[in-house]
Design a protein that fits this description.
Number of domains: 2
Number of helices: 13
Number of strands: 12
Order of helices and strands: EEEHEHEHEHEHHEHHHEHEHHEEH
Oligomer: single chain
CATH topology of the largest domain: TIM Barrel
Amino acid sequence: MFILDQGARVVVPRTELTYPGHNLKLHQNAADPLKSPVDHVMADLEDACPYEFKGDKSRGVMVEALNSIDFGKKVVTVRPNNLRSEFFRGDMEAVMKQAVDKFHGVIVPKVWGADDVKLVSELLDELEGKYGWKTKVAIEALIERPHALEHAYEIGTASPRMAGLIFGIADYTAELGGDPDLLLDRQNEVFYYEKKAVVTAAKAAGLHAIDNVYLRIWRKDDTPAVVAEVEERLRRKNEGAAAIGMDGTWVIHPQQVKISNESYTPTEQQLEEAKYQLDFYHERGGGSMFDPKTGQMIDEATAKIALMRVSKAYMAGLVKKGIRGLYG
């Protein structure tokens, strides 16, 4: 989860919009609350940025966007090129030097293991101190390699900066040598183990878990039947991922946002249970205790899950800030 505004706001993203970071218009669209009503935006300097734009061209656009565009209450993150790329250090130096306190986190691609996260964390320590940052930049790690999946918990606990783990299905499938068609409508079945492993590692580390993109997009000239089919399959993918514990999903187009947000928004019953658990936990002063009303054990883990649900409900406009800054 992201802890923002000096601890006053907790955000567990239901939707993370990824888009090419070298295109200023796409930054503007991502910031627009009507066009892109997402919880989190991620401007990409890696896979979505063509090689000819890498380096100073894309960094210049990124810095201009971060300094000139109002992203409102959205979590704003940057995805640099991977650690082993010739562009990584320059990407990090540019945004940390020229966009001080203008974004909240970095998404680290192609993570191999915990040492990669430690390297990024140490670099952020250095650059925040060097350029006078007040914001503590968070880290989300992309689990898109089999080796990373096997070490997901170590990655999740490698730095106090860690906010979440994201399953990157495209690169993962490529490393396996799998059928690209499996990225679409059978992914929750075929990649059930991988998704559940990311969820388990994230929750064990106290982080949020974000599901991969759904790559099918309807076009303007598609029939209503085709649009309905694409949207139904998107909903099925997201509701299936939410059922196994994913907190949100990447999206690649604003047309995916409404269904995706709905899929990861707590139900009224879940929200009421979460509010009750938080009240009970705080009234008893924390710890682990038996609740005679429900017959459940309430502890820190229960409270954390409840807080994450309330956070997502807050992003959906179902609750407002109030009691203890959590809900009203």
